[in-house]
C-alpha cells in the first residue's frame, strides 16, 4: 500500500509550529544553551526547532515505529543533535534549569518510542552525530560513542581485524547508546553472553552535568547502566568494549520448514537441543504465517543458524544432535564474521559490506512487540495451540532465541539483566501492519494481548519475565489504583527480577530528584 506520507507531514507541521511558538520554557532553554557550552564548539548548528526546515526529517530519521510518528504523537519543542560532549552537558543543565524534560535518543529503536515521545513539554537530546569508533586491536578493545550503530561497529572492527567481533544485535541500525544500556543480545550470546557482559568502561554525563567514567561513577553505577537502561541514570557518551575472538570463517544457514514439512516436530525437538548445543552454535527458530504452495495459510519456521567454525564440523555436530532438521551442505554458507553480520540482517549472501553503514531515513512499519521467557519445553499440543493463534493474526512473527552456554554461566546479579540459567529460550512476539488509523492499531494491540494471554501456560511465572530492550508499555500499566512506585515495581521485577531493588538504590544516589525519567524508568526511593 502506498503511504500518503505528505498528508501526514502537513498535519504534522501545523501541529508542531503551534506548539512551539512563544513557549517561554523553550525560549529560556535556547538562550541558556550557548551560555553553558564551550564556545570552541558552537552549539547553534546542533539545534533544531520547528523553525528549521529539516526539523521533521531529523525527527523522523530516528523513529522506527510508525505508531509513534502519527499526527497525534506529541512532538518535542526542540531537538539538540549534540556534536560535542559540552553540548550534552549544556542540554542537561539548561533543561533542568528551565523545567523541560529531556528524552535521550541514540538509534531510536525503542519499541514504544520512549526516546522521542513524552506527554509533558520536552526536548530530544539526540546522539546520532556522536558516532566515533576507535578500535585498538593491540589490547582488543574499542571506544564506541553512543550514536554509533551496531552496523558501523561491525564494519570498523572488520576494518582492523578479521579475527575479532562483538556480541550484539542482528539489526544494523541499533544505537549502541540504547542497545547496550538495555543488555544487547545477538547470535553470539551462547558463546560470549550479552553486549553488557563485554563492556569495560563508559563515559556518562550525570544530572549535574559532570562527565563520569567507571572509576569516578563507582562500581554500582557502572553496574546499573549495563542493562538497567541508560535513560534512568544519565546520558551515555561512549562505551569501552572488549572485542571477542572469532574464527576467520564462520558458517550460517537459514532452513525453512512448514507445518506440512514437519515444522511442529522439529521445533518441539529444537527446545531440547538448541540450549544444550556447543556454545559455538546458535540456532534461532522463527515461526511466521505464510501461504503454502496451495495458497493456504500455514506456519513456516525458519531455523537460522550461526556456527563459529566451518561447515564440515557443523554438519557432523548437527547430524549427531539434531538430525530432524536435515541440515545439508547446500544449506551452509561459509564467510567471514563481518559478512555473517550482513546475513543476519537478512541481506542476500554476497551483499557488499557498505550496507553496514546505511541509516534508515524514516519508519516504514507499525508494530507492537512483547516478550517472554520459557523454562520448560512446550508440548506438541501446546505448540499446535500457538500456531492456531498465529494463523488467526497472520501479520505476526515470533523469534525463539536459545539460551544456555555462556548465558547460564553468568549469575543473575552480575548485571541488571537477570534472565540467565534456567531459561531455555526467550520469545519475541512481533505484530506488524502498514495500514494507518487508530482502528487498525487498536485491533493489532488487542491481538497482541490475546496472543500474550494465550501463551500464559507455557512461559515464566511470578514474575512473568520480560526483556527490557523489548520495551512493552502494557507491562505494569493501568493496574488498579497504584502509585508510580508500585507500577515501577511491576515492570521492574519483570525486567530485572531481584536486581530492581539495587537499581532503585543506585538511582536514588545518582538522581534523587528523578530528572532522568520516562514511563518505564527506575524511580528513586
Ligand atoms: C528492528 C529492531 C531490531 C532489534 N534487534 C535487537 C536485537 O537483535 N537484540 C537486542 O538486544 N535488541 C534488539 N532490538 C531492541 C533494541 O536493542 C532496543 O530497542 C534498544 O533500546 C535500541 O537502542 P537505540 O539506541 O537504537 O534506541 P533509542 O530509542 O534511541 O533508545 C532506547 C532507550 O535507551 C535510552 N537511550 C538511548 N541512548 C541513550 C544514551 N546515550 N544514554 C542514555 N540512555 C539512552 C532511550 O532514552 C530509550 O529509553 C531491536 C529493535 C528493533 C526496532
Ligand atoms: C536552525 O535555525 C536557527 C535559526 O535560524 C539557526 O541558528 C540554526 O543554526 C539552525 N539549525 C541547524 C541545525 O541548521
Ligand atoms: C592500544 O592499546 C595498547 C595496549 O594497552 C596501548 O599501548 C596503545 O597506546 C593503544 N593504542 C591506541 C591508539 O590507543
Ligand atoms: C579500512 O578503512 C580504510 C578507510 O576507509 C580503507 O582505506 C582501508 O582499505 C580499509 N581496510 C580494510 C582492511 O578494510
Ligand atoms: C496469503 O494469500 C492471501 C490471498 O492471496 C493474501 O491476502 C494474504 O495476505 C497472504 N498471506 C500471507 C501471510 O502471505
Ligand atoms: C487448502 O484449502 C482448501 C480449502 O479450504 C482445502 O480443500 C485443501 O485441502 C487445503 N489444502 C491443503 C494442502 O491443506
Ligand atoms: C550422519 O550419521 C549417520 C549415522 O549416525 C551416518 O550414517 C551418516 O553418514 C552421517 N551423515 C553425515 C552427513 O555426517
Ligand atoms: C486512589 O488512591 C487515592 C490515594 O490513595 C484515593 O484517594 C482514591 O480514592 C483512590 N481511587 C480509587 C478509584 O480507588
Write a structural description:
Residues 72-246 form the FAD-binding PCMH-type domain. InterPro entries: BBE, FAD-bd_PCMH, FAD-bd_PCMH-like_sf, FAD-bd_PCMH_sub1, FAD-bd_PCMH_sub2, Oxid_FAD_bind_N. One of its GO terms (biological process) is cannabinoid biosynthetic process. Its cofactor is FAD. It comes from Prunus dulcis (Almond). This protein is of the alpha+beta class and 525 residues long. It folds into three domains: 5-126, Uridine Diphospho-n-acetylenolpyruvylglucosamine Reductase, domain 2, CATH 3.30.43; 133-245, Uridine Diphospho-n-acetylenolpyruvylglucosamine Reductase, domain 3 (2-Layer Sandwich), CATH 3.30.465.10; 250-335 and 365-458, Vanillyl-alcohol Oxidase, Chain A, domain 3. The protein is built from 17 helices and 18 strands. The protein has helices at 5-20, 24-36, 55-61, 85-97, 150-160, 176-181, 189-192, 214-217, 219-225, 263-273, 311-321, 337-344, 380-393, 406-409, 438-455, 484-496, 499-510; strands spanning 47-49, 78-81, 101-105, 122-126, 133-136, 141-145, 164-165, 199-205, 211-212, 235-242, 244-245, 250-258, 281-291, 297-307, 333-335, 366-374, 396-402, 425-433. The chain has a seven-stranded antiparallel sheet with strand order 15-12-14-13-17-18-16. It has a five-stranded antiparallel sheet with strand order 5-6-10-8-9. The protein has a four-stranded mixed sheet with strand order 1-2-4-3, with helices on both faces. Strand 8 and strand 9 (211-212) form a beta hairpin. Helix 2 packs antiparallel against helix 4. The longest helix is centred in the last third of the chain and has 18 residues, at 438-455. The radius of gyration is 23 Å and the shape is globular. The model is unreliable at 1-20 (pLDDT under 50). One 2-acetamido-2-deoxy-beta-D-glucopyranose binds next to strand 1.
Amino acid at each position: 500500500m502506498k503511504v500518503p506520507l505528505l498528508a501526514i507531514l502537513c498535519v504534522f507541521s501545523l501541529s508542531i509550529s503551534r506548539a512551539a511558538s512563544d513557549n517561554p520554557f523553550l525560549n529560556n532553554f535556547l538562550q541558556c544553551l550557548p551560555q553553558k557550552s564551550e564556545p570552541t564548539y558552537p552549539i547553534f548548528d546542533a539545534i533544531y526547532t520547528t523553525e528549521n526546515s529539516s526539523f521533521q526529517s531529523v525527527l523522523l530519521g530516528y523513529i522506527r515505529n510508525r505508531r509513534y510518528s502519527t499526527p497525534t504523537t506529541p512532538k518535542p519543542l526542540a531537538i539538540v543533535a549534540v556534536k560535542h560532549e559540552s553540548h550534552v552537558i549544556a542540554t542537561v543543565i539548561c533543561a533542568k534549569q528551565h523545567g523541560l524534560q529531556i528524552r535521550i535518543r541514540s538509534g531510536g529503536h525503542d519499541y514504544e518510542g520512549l526516546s522521542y515521545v513524552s506527554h509533558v513539554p520536552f526536548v530530544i537530546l539526540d546522539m546520532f552525530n556522536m558516532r566515533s569508533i576507535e578500535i585498538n586491536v593491540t589490547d582488543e578493545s574499542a571506544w564506541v560513542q553512543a550514536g554509533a550503530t551496531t552496523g558501523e561497529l561491525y564494519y570498523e572492527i572488520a576494518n582492523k581485524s578479521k579475527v575479532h567481533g562483538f556480541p550484539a544485535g542482528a539489526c544494523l541500525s541499533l544505537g549502541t547508546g540504547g542497545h547496550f544500556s538495555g543488555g544487547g543480545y545477538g547470535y553470539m550470546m551462547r558463546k560470549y553472553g550479552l553486549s553488557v557482559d563485554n563492556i569495560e568502561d563508559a563515559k556518562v554525563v550525570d544530572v549535574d552535568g559532570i562527565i563520569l567514567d567507571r572509576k569516578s561513577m563507582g562500581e554500582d553505577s557502572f553496574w546499573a547502566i549495563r542493562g538497567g537502561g541508560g535513560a534512568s541514570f544519565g546520558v551515555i557518551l561512549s562505551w569501552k568494549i572488549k572485542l571477542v575472538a572469532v574464527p576467520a570463517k564462520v558458517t550460517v544457514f537459514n532452513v525453512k520448514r512448514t507445518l506440512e514439512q514437519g515444522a511442529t516436530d522439529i521445533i518441539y525437538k529444537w527446545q531440547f537441543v538448541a540450549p544444550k548445543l556447543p556454545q559455538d552454535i546458535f540456532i534461532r527458530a522463527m515461526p511466521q504465517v505464510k501461504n503454502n504452495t496451495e495458497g493456504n495459510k500455514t506456519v513456516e519456521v525458519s531455523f537460522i543458524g550461526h556456527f563459529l567454525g566451518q561447515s564440515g564440523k557443523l554438519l557432523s555436530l548437527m547430524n549427531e544432535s539434531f538430525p530432524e532438521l536435515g541440515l545439508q551442505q547446500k544449506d551452509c554458507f561459509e564467510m567471514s564474521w563481518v559478512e555473517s553480520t550482513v546475513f543476519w540482517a537478512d541481506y542476500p549472501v554476497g551483499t557488499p559490506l557498505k550496507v553496514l553503514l546505511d541509516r534508515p531515513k524514516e519508519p516504514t512499519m507499525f508494530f507492537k512487540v512483547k516478550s517472554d521467557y520459557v523454562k520448560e519445553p512446550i508440548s506438541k499440543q501446546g505448540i499446535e495451540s500457538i500456531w492456531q493463534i498465529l494463523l488467526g493474526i497472520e501479520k505476526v512473527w515470533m523469534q525463539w532465541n536459545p539460551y544456555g552456554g555462556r548465558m547460564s554461566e553468568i549469575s543473575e546479579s552480575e548485571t541488571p539483566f537477570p534472565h540467565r540459567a534456567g531459561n531455555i529460550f526467550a520469545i519475541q512476539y512481533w505484530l506488524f501492519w502498514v495500514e494507518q488509523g487508530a482502528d487498525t492499531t487498536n485491533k493489532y494491540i488487542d491481538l497482541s494481548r490475546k496472543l500474550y494471554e494465550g501463551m500464559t501456560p507455557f512461559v515464566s511465572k511470578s514474575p512473568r519475565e520480560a526483556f527490557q530492550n523489548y520495551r512493552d508499555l502494557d507491562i505494569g500499566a493501568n493496574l488498579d489504583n497504584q502509585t508510580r512506585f508500585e507500577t515501577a515495581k511491576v515492570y521492574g521485577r519483570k525486567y530485572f527480577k531481584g536486581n530492581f531493588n539495587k537499581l532503585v538504590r543506585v538511582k536514588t544516589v545518582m538522581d534523587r530528584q528523578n530528572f532522568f525519567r520516562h514511563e518505564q524508568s527506575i524511580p528513586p526511593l
